[in-house]
Write a structure and sequence with these properties.
By secondary structure, the protein is an alpha/beta fold. It has eleven helices and 13 strands. The strands form four sheets. It has a seven-stranded parallel sheet with strand order 3-2-1-4-5-6-11, with helices on both faces. The chain has a two-stranded parallel ribbon with strand order 7-10. Helix 1 links the parallel strand 1 and strand 2. Helix 2 crosses helix 3 and helix 3 packs parallel to helix 4. The longest helix has 17 residues. The protein is globular and about 55 Å long.
């Protein structure tokens, strides 16, 4: 497919930034719909930036009109300031239908492993509803389902390392024997580029080459940063209460019920062959000197501007 222009949501966010860099490195022209149109960013001069205004569908349509591909990274990690998962679903539907009406030829959507319409977890159920919407839209699509994404500027893995560096105890929900297959952010970006250029409808999992139990993943980080706190095991409800209290101290949201139960229900692994190539073990050891040296605030990054 000949591609003259690509529209991506969140090109100045975490995964969106790496996807945008991968596209720019291959010579594509990009525009982004973003909640951070005024941000100072290394790639801003190379990307046309427009505000992501769901109350102005005409603005979204005007950005998409001359584009061939739409890459969607938009979603919310948790409800905040009145924005719910149901609203995020409606917002994503607006993006998809506006893209179709604007003549977009292909949509690449970032989802999550193991979404389910019957899930009791709003995050995973919402992702499943959006996938179904895209499948029935009538536009060529690729659905990419990553697990936990790691890399520089990452929040989750970085903040685990931050806690391991600073406290003598680290609490794990349950036995810690549930599994996780983290994927490197640049591997995810390369998958987006590859699937963008295909024509058939595809749904693939984006996972790394290594599978860990959650306890072993924590121990890998401990080894990399040379910190060895005592690891305790606790019921999920106690972890949630602890994370709520710690969130108040940090003025952030450290962990959510969706994340605790999604992890413990083995939803962050895949039964497909791994498409990521980068070793988590090698990466954390190569980045041991910077990993977890500062706390990365979700609220500060997305809301407190």
């Amino acid at each position: 497919m000949d591609i003259s222009k690509i529209v991506i949501t969140g090109a100045f966010g975490y995964s969106g930034h790496y996807i945008a860099n991968a596209l720019l490195g291959r010579g594509y022209t990009l525009a982004t719909l973003t909640n951070k149109p005024d941000i100072t960013h290394s790639t801003k001069k190379k990307i046309q930036a427009y505000p992501l205004r769901f109350d102005s569908p005409k603005l979204i349509a005007s950005v998409m009109e001359s584009a061939d591909v739409f890459i969607n990274t938009y979603w919310i990690r948790f409800p905040y300031r009145g924005l719910t998962f149901n609203q995020a679903i409606e917002n994503t539907r607006t993006l998809f239908h506006t893209a179709k009406n604007a003549g977009i030829k292909r949509i690449v959507h970032i989802s999550i492993t193991n979404p389910s319409l019957s899930s009791s977890l709003p995050y995973f159920r919402g992702k499943a509803l959006i996938e179904k919407e895209l499948e029935n839209l009538g536009v060529s699509y690729a659905i990419i389902r990553p697990t936990v994404i790691f890399g520089k500027e990452d929040i989750l893995i970085n903040n685990i390392a931050y806690l391991l560096r600073r406290f003598p105890l680290f609490i794990i929900p349950g036995k810690g024997n549930y599994k996780i297959q983290p994927i490197f952010v640049e591997d995810l970006a390369n998958l987006v580029v590859e699937t963008m250029n295909e024509s058939n409808n595809i749904t693939i999992d984006a996972v790394g080459p290594e599978t860990y139990t959650f306890r072993d993943l924590i121990l890998e980080i401990c080894t990399a940063i040379h910190k060895y706190p005592t690891i305790l095991h606790s019921p999920p409800w106690a972890i949630y209460i602890f994370s709520k209290l710690f969130s108040l101290y940090l003025n952030d949201i450290l962990l959510t019920k969706n994340e605790i139960h999604g992890l413990m229900n083995n939803l962050l692994i895949s039964h497909q062959p791994p498409l990521g190539k980068t070793s988590f073990r090698q990466w954390v050891r190569q980045n041991h000197d910077t990993l977890g040296t500062h706390y990365a605030s979700e609220l500060a990054h997305h809301y407190q501007r």
